[in-house]
Amino acid sequence: MENQRIYPRNDERDREDTPIYSRLFIVCDRGLKEEQFRNAFSEFGCVEDVRIPRDHKTGEPKGVVFVKFSKTSEAAKALEAMNSKVITNSSRPLKVMVAANRSEIQSEDWSNDKYRRLFLHVPKSATEDSLEEHFKQFGHVEDVLIQRDRQTGESKGLAYIKYRKFSEAAIAYEECERKYRAIFAKTKAYNKRSATSFENNINHLANSSVSQKNSLMSMMNVTPRGFTRLNFRCSPYLTQMHVDTLFDIIPGLVDCKYFVDLMRNVGKGFVQYSNPISASYAFEKLNEFEYPPGQKIFIKPTNTDFDPHENENLNIPNAVNNLRNAIASTSNSSSPDLAQLAEAIAEASKLIKIATAGVSDDNIPNSDDLNYCSVKLPPPQPLADIDSPVAKRCFLVCKPQPPPLTVLRDIFCRFGNLINVYTLPNKTVGYARYSVSESADEAIRVLHGAEVCGIRMKVIEADAEAPAKRIRLD
């Protein structure tokens, strides 16, 4: 029992640390020991835990370490002081980052707004100056923003405080009065570029007097319908980056969410604009726009249902229904319409080719010429049995968004013996599992650095899977 390694439960590894941002992820020399990290980092506060991940096969350190502090401010001070520093008996400078939990790191720069901004509940009578005066006792305040009602200009009782350093924001988070209910401000998943002066003018006119609104409506040749949010359906082979770029053409884009419905093989999502004029203009100009060519994108206000016939240009189930109806009419008729059956079979076959190739119906490539992949690939191979033992896994990194699963499956199956490929929810990473090591090695060799659907992929060997049976630590 003493020689068995105890693994933390999945929920224990994946949950967010308490307090938030109190665990650091450090890239370092492989030869450094736990005691060296405790000695180097204990001067900044109470070190609760030091974890050095090791290779499952060799038992050797991986060259990274997690250090957990009792307070966020202690971790922040350690990060600011030790990043790029060299520990005694080491020749390699440390790279120190914030860890999201026991097993993940935050890829963002620790000096960005995510670690320097606090979200507060404030009295509606509070002003920016009074908040700055109060919160500057914790550090240098760079910016104060009170959320206000667009129509009346009155405070909503919510505010953002941005500090110069992560450690200053952490001290304010810990020491400010509880009535403020301070938390670190979350960044939006959609990182839209800064608004241009033209967009600022558009938003200003849209929220100004009636005469200015009429001037803007005349310029854009659109009549606002009172909505600012739109739902859309599109080709499942588009990525988040493609959708963002399309809707960002219209000034005033605030938010954009997109996902692929694998059951119906259709892309879905919504976009939010800052004013009704921009939203109406997007609806007028982009509804039924062909993107990519040959496949229409359908847009509706959020309170309007989609016409089921609009899916005919988007997904396979409609073709399947047509084929089913043709077969039923043929079997129930004394004089079957063979022409109708042949047409339904041809339509279904064409869409199946599109789904496996990931391109429009007027440009179906052969297996040696995939226009959505930058490297030459072998022909598709059958999948391995789902219960096959895993010989090797590939670790995938796809930024800013992973390609659709149908595309990933088509690409990775071409090296043979693929068990399955998947991406983690709301992450930019995933795994491809092979039953034969040589197939995984070939996939890594060919696909590492390749562009798929305009997304550059990193494909490397994943660590060996942990033992199936783990000892629970209660």
Q: Can you describe what's shown?
A:
30% of the residues are buried. The radius of gyration is 28 Å and the shape is flat. The strands form four sheets. A five-stranded antiparallel beta sheet has the order 10-11-9-13-12, with helices on one face. The chain has a five-stranded antiparallel beta sheet with strand order 15-16-14-18-17, with helices on one face. It is built from 13 helices and 18 strands. Helix content is 29%, strand content 22%. It starts with 9 loop residues before the first helix and ends in a 13-residue tail after the last strand. The protein is an alpha+beta fold and 474 residues long. Helix 3 runs antiparallel to helix 5 (166-175) and helix 10 (316-331) packs antiparallel against helix 11.
The strand count comes to 18
Q: What is the CA-based Rg, rounded?
A: 28 Å
Beta strand %: 15-25%
Largest sheet properties: 5 strands, antiparallel
Unreliable segments (pLDDT under 50, ≥5 consecutive)? Answer: 1-14, 102-110, 308-317, 354-369, 465-471
User: How would you classify the helix and strand content by structural class?
Assistant: alpha+beta
Q: What's the rounded overall pLDDT mean?
A: 76
Distance between the termini: 16 Å
- Please work out how many helical segments DSSP would assign: 13
Q: What is the spatial order of strands in the main beta sheet?
A: 10-11-9-13-12
Indicate the percent of residues in helices: 25-40%
Note the overall shape: flat
